[in-house]
């Protein structure tokens, strides 16, 4: 199906330490008129300055959202990095909790950057060379730095994304964010092998106001998760509490619009209605970014 009104809230952008397909200028030229909007993500530094440097960009053509990913490269759980980006943006930015530097991710992956993400001659550091970022103490309570991040997200009207923390960490994080009054939350691809969140927890979190469960193309295309499993998650949770994203930007990946067109066609073959696809690709993302 056509995805010209979809808003893709998970697109990787370069330049970055690992090879990426697009810079901001290139992705604007490639996607204008083919998709309504995108949130641009980088594991290593905030993307809002890259977006704002494109002075000729017209939001009536293409909405671009910036983001901050709380890895070691920006100081980890750093509320000042959130403030600095959010104050540059007219729309909410996404704040991803740690991804490639999350302690959970490093314990479950041999490499900081898995080879399947890259290809070619790129050499990633081994996970045991990296200091992992924990958001919980030994009693599974949020540490003080994580609480400060939540406050910065709330104060600056940001969208919280759970990143690559563990299933149980994500659960506690969402519950605490909800208590604080954060009403824009994405549970990041919980079907991902390094997270593997039980469907019962996904349904619990989806019951909170403003929480959406992410279903993305890369889980199928890169991580080889059967499309039937993704459909099972959508049916169990309900389209009204899911969003569709691409999670592309890898050198050999399709564009976001191409990925979402393929993804929606696969989902439709499996029985997901066009109405539900539009809910997940257009309506729910727009609720998060307004």
Secondary structure elements and pairings:
Blueprint: E1 7-12, H1 24-31, E2 37-41, H2 48-52, E3 63-65, E4 67-69, H3 79-86, E5 94-96, H4 103-108, H5 144-155, E6 159-161, H6 167-180, E7 185-187, H7 199-206, E8 211-216, H8 217-221, H9 227-237, E9 242-245, H10 256-269, H11 274-289
Parallel strand pairs: 1-2, 2-3, 4-5, 5-6, 6-7, 7-8, 8-9
Helix pairs in contact: 3-5
What can you tell me about this protein's structure?
This protein has 290 residues and is of the alpha/beta class. It has a single domain (7-289), classed as Metal-dependent hydrolases (TIM Barrel), CATH 3.20.20.140. 37% of the residues lie in helices and 12% in strands. The protein has eleven helices and nine strands. It has helices at residues 24-31, 48-52, 79-86, 103-108, 144-155, 167-180, 199-206, 217-221, 227-237, 256-269, 274-289, and strands at residues 7-12, 37-41, 63-65, 67-69, 94-96, 159-161, 185-187, 211-216, 242-245. The strands form two sheets. Strands 4-5-6-7-8-9 form a six-stranded parallel sheet. The longest helix is centred in the C-terminal third of the chain and has 16 residues, at 274-289. The chain is globular. 48% of the residues are buried.
Question: What key phrases describe this protein's structure?
Answer:
single chain; 290 residues; alpha/beta; TIM Barrel; 6-stranded parallel sheet; 3-stranded parallel sheet; 9 strands; 12% strand; globular
């Amino acid at each position: 199906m056509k995805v010209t009104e979809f808003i893709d809230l998970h697109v990787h952008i370069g330049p970055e330490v690992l090879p990426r397909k697009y810079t901001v200028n290139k992705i604007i030229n490639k996607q204008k008129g083919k998709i309504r909007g995108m949130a641009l993500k980088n594991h290593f530094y905030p993307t809002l300055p890259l977006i704002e440097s494109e002075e000729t960009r017209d939001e009536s053509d293409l909405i671009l959202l910036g983001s901050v990913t709380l890895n070691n490269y920006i100081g980890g759980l750093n509320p000042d990095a959130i403030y600095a980006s959010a104050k540059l943006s007219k729309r909410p930015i996404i704040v991803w909790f740690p991804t490639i530097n999350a302690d959970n991710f490093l314990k479950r992956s041999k490499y900081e950057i898995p080879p399947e993400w890259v290809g070619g001659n790129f050499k990633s550091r081994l996970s045991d060379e990296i200091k992992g970022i924990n958001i919980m103490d030994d009693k599974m309570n949020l540490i003080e730095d994580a609480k400060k991040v939540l406050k910065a997200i709330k104060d600056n009207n940001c969208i919280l994304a759970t990143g690559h923390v563990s299933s149980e960490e994500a659960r506690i994080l969402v519950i605490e964010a909800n208590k604080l009054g954060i009403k824009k939350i994405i549970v990041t691809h919980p079907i991902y092998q390094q997270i593997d969140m039980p469907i019962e927890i996904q349904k619990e979190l989806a019951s909170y106001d403003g929480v959406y469960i992410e279903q993305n193309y890369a889980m199928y295309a890169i991580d080889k998760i059967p499309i039937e499993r993704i459909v099972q998650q959508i049916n169990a949770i309900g389209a009204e509490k899911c969003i569709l994203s691409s999670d592309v930007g890898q050198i050999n990946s399709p564009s976001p619009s191409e990925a979402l067109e393929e993804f929606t066609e696969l989902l439709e073959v499996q029985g997901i209605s066009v109405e539900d696809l539009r809910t997940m690709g257009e309506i729910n993302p727009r609720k998060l970014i307004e």
